[in-house]
Amino acid sequence: xxxxxxxxxxxxxxxxxxxxxxxxxxxxxxxxxxxxxxxxxxxxxxxxxxxxxxxxxxxxxxxxxxxxxxxxxxxxxxxxxxxxxxxxxxxxxxxxxxxxxxxxxxxxxxxxxxxxxxxx
Length: 120
Prior knowledge:
Elements: H1 2-29, H2 33-45, E1 48-52, E2 56-59, E3 68-72, E4 77-84, E5 90-92, E6 95-97, E7 100-105, E8 108-113, E9 117-119
Antiparallel strand pairs: 1-4, 1-9, 2-3, 4-7, 5-6, 7-8
Protein name: SH3b domain-containing protein
InterPro entries: SH3-like_bac-type (IPR003646), SH3-like_dom_sf (IPR036028)
Keywords: Signal
């Protein structure tokens, strides 16, 4: 009788562990909404904020003839991602340059001329 109880207990424990492993794997592949929200909040808190000096088009690529994704409005903030000195030439916001900044603004990510933003 002791052998049967020990066997049943071992089988139950093995099934429980197998089920826990599956649940953990499924969780790792598909995070919950709460996990995504935490990740977005963490990413947003690491953002360097920049402010638009005037209304300027957010572009798909760092060229003035690239598709405009939306307007970044004067005195509004965007999240700065990076910079390239090798974009297309532009004249905007009181200067001419090839420097562009990669930003996220109101859910869209694109490029704006460096002369048109200020860091705060």
